[in-house]
């Protein structure tokens, strides 16, 4: 018997920020330490993501997760009982083997991820260290640059505008806490600008202001105005990051901008984005082209990859093999890391290791369907990824993560280093 062997695993159905069911796993070790974690859920998902198991019964529109919960309480619990939680790689390998499918279609990535993360929490509790320190050791002291949404859009706002995330980063901030302070002011001023123009229509899925705009450009202009009114220099102090989420409105090299009733091919969309980069203080663009448009990704990266960060989300789905393939063709320079796109911590970390091998940057990211779970904050610090994307600056499921990062920075004290923009992706050729 070893103090960090698994005594029991229990799963329950809990609810996410959209009021939809999701899986929570709780692991108790032989020494009595307990770890708990909840799987998040996306809305604009990549087709190559690991499978999120939903019951498909009439309850909750087919979205119930009682099968996934049952797998944890049955098969997974039996297989892992007595195993060491200390060996994360072996534990995750066991989950992968047990599932036996390439994409976790049998047990569900929501089941396996909740277990994988809960095991890490349990060991950290057993060792009495914060999760980031268990993951990265005492030398993991790099605080990430936050990417924070000001306006939501795309699939997160009823397609009111085409672009999904209008975000800010704070290149001029001296530490994580200051980046949040500046973002709070930009978010507040963005709300005031919107209010002057008409009634405020609430917030989108991840808490960004509802995008009441006539064009995509108008959203960008309003964001610059909010940065200025908040008293910051656009670009130098506060800059713009976009998630185009182009797979949502394009495939096979054809893109339909609904807001502008325009149809574009890859080069047409690239031209629009290049114009925006010239006109607005944009430092990062995620999924500029659709997940099936690797050639477009490579062309855009050749055109803009030395100036800005180009992030693959749906395009790379946190997959180490896809990261290596993308690097071989010069597509993107940064990978978004969403643990539930793979279904275990180890596989997500493999994507980050592959990224570092090929000179790509990494951004640890939440999903649009979230909970109070703050595991990703600890992954960002523990892995030294240098960037963290959580959604906007309202709603408890978002603030739980920003606030947890504040606690981590405070605890690191003088040892904390702020990544600033040093961790941003840049193509070398
Ligand atoms: P999702 O969106 O969680 O709805 O997939 C987040 C993102 O695209 O980054
Ligand atoms: Zn995305």
Structure description:
The chain has 429 residues and is α/β, with parallel strands linked by helices. It folds into 2 domains: 6-128, Enolase-like, domain 1 (2-Layer Sandwich); 142-425, TIM Barrel, CATH 3.20.20. It is built from 12 helices and 16 strands. It has helices spanning 66-80, 88-99, 109-127, 131-136, 176-197, 216-229, 266-279, 294-304, 320-329, 345-358, 375-383, 396-412; strands spanning 6-15, 21-29, 34-38, 142-143, 145-152, 165-169, 239-243, 250-251, 254-257, 262-265, 282-286, 309-312, 334-337, 361-365, 387-392, 417-418. The protein has an 8-stranded mixed beta barrel, surrounded by 6 helices. A 3-stranded antiparallel β-sheet has the order 1-2-3. The protein is globular. The chain starts with 5 loop residues before the first strand and ends in an 11-residue tail after the last strand. 2-phosphoglycolic acid binds at residues 42-45, 164, 243, 245, 313, 365, 367-368.
């Amino acid at each position: 018997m070893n103090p960090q062997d698994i005594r029991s695993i229990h799963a329950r159905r809990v609810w996410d920020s959209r009021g939809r069911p999701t899986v929570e796993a709780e692991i108790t070790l032989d020494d009595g330490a307990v770890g708990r974690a909840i799987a998040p859920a996306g809305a604009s998902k990549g087709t190559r993501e690991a499978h999120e198991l939903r019951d498909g019964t009439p309850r909750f529109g087919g979205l119930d997760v009682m099968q996934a919960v049952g797998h944890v309480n049955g098969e997974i619990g039996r297989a892992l009982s007595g195993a060491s939680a200390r060996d994360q790689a072996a534990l995750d390998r066991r989950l992968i083997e047990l599932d036996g499918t390439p994409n976790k279609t049998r047990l569900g990535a929501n089941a396996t991820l909740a277990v994988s993360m809960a095991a890490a929490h349990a060991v950290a509790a057993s060792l009495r260290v914060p999760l980031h320190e268990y993951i990265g050791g005492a030398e993991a002291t790099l605080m990430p640059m936050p990417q924070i949404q000001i306006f939501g859009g795309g699939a997160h706002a009823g397609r009111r505008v085409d672009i999904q995330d209008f975000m800010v980063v704070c290149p001029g901030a001296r530490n994580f806490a200051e980046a949040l302070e500046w973002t709070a002011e930009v978010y507040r001023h963005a709300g005031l600008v919107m209010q002057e123009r008409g009634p405020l229509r609430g917030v989108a899925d991840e808490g960004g202001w509802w995008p009441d705009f006539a064009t995509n450009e108008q959203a960008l202009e309003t964001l610059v105005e909010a940065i200025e009114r908040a008293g910051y220099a656009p670009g130098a102090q506060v800059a713009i990051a976009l998630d185009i989420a182009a797979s949502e409105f394009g495939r096979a090299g054809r893109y339909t901008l609904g807001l502008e009733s325009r149809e574009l091919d890859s080069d047409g969309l690239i031209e629009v984005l290049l114009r925006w980069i010239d006109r607005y203080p944009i430092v990062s663009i995620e999924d500029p082209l659709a997940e099936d448009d690797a050639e477009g990704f490579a062309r855009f990266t050749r055109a803009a990859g030395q100036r800005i960060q180009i992030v693959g989300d749906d395009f790379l789905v946190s997959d180490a093999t896809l990261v290596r393939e993308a690097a071989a063709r010069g597509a993107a320079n940064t990978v978004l890391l969403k643990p539930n796109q793979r279904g275990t911590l180890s596989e997500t970390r493999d994507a980050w290791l592959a990224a570092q091998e090929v000179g790509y940057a990494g951004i640890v990211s939440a999903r649009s369907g979230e909970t109070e779970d703050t595991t990703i904050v600890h992954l960002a610090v523990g892995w030294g990824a240098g960037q963290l994307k959580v959604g906007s600056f309202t709603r408890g499921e978002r603030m739980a993560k920003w606030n947890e990062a504040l606690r981590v920075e405070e605890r690191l004290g003088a040892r904390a280093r702020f990544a600033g923009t040093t961790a941003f992706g840049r193509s070398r050729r």
